Amino acid sequence: MFAQGRPLERARLLFHFESGSARAVLDELAAYQNDDGGFGHALEPDLRTPVSSAVATWCACTVLHEIGAGAEEPLVRRAVGYLLDTYDAAGRRWWIVPPETEDSPRAPWWTYADIGRTFGDCVLNPTAGLAGALWEYRELVPAALLGELTETVLTRLEGWADGAGGLDRGDLTAAELFVQARNLPDAARLRALAAMRRAAARLVENRPEAWTEYLLQPLDVAPSPDSPLFPAVDSASIEANLDYVLSKQLPDGSWPLTWSWAEVDAQAWPLAERAAKGLVAVDRLRTLRAYGRL
């Protein structure tokens, strides 16, 4: 991490393992915030545009949740302002990436073209996660909007959890910030969890031989025993996944990624890969500690 990781991930690592300050994390996160309050500049490593996007702002909001940042922070207030300004009220969603996405290096899946089909009309990914972010800072958000968003997300989760096609990995990941949001009413949390647990039980890949692929592994949905989706995952699969993670650490201390777009852009991919490995390393270490494997 200290040789290859981004300053942001180093600050997160120190926060979680060495009594580092939340202020240091906020200071590093600020480097990715634009004047409009949104986040860009490859905060999501596979999306290299400097322009603000809903997905990069969702990434920032997960860090803010992680360190318990309060509504008094100017960075938080600007981020909430960006979300309020870019909310598509007619469709009750945020569009995941902006048109400018096409002008910078990116993974092939981060494309603005045909955005509705590619991302399921963005009605859950990233909308569920950003709705959770607004619940974190409800004092900054109109109550009517929170009510509208909450019922919209719940209806979509419950309708898609068992429907044809159902929820996919991105939808489930976005919804995790929703159910973990501070201030989310308990009744809404329970409704969302019930739908998500049904979906997780279907989506998680329990076969170790498939874990080299970009699939939902048990630890992706249950990174700690306190995770809201932990009850949906078989305990034996979690133990096997922990063994697998420990066995796959590379000599340099990182873990191999399960995706690549080197064939699309051989120059940009190494930068994205290095940043992504830092993200994965912090998450792996936090998970291993949570399960008593450090």
Automatic annotation (TrEMBL):
Q: Which domain of life is it from?
A: Bacteria
The record, for InterPro entries, names: Terpenoid_cyclase/PrenylTrfase
Q: What is this protein called?
A: Prenyltransferase/squalene oxidase-like repeat protein
Question: Which source organism?
Answer: Catellatospora citrea
Gene3D superfamilies the record matches: 1.50.10.20
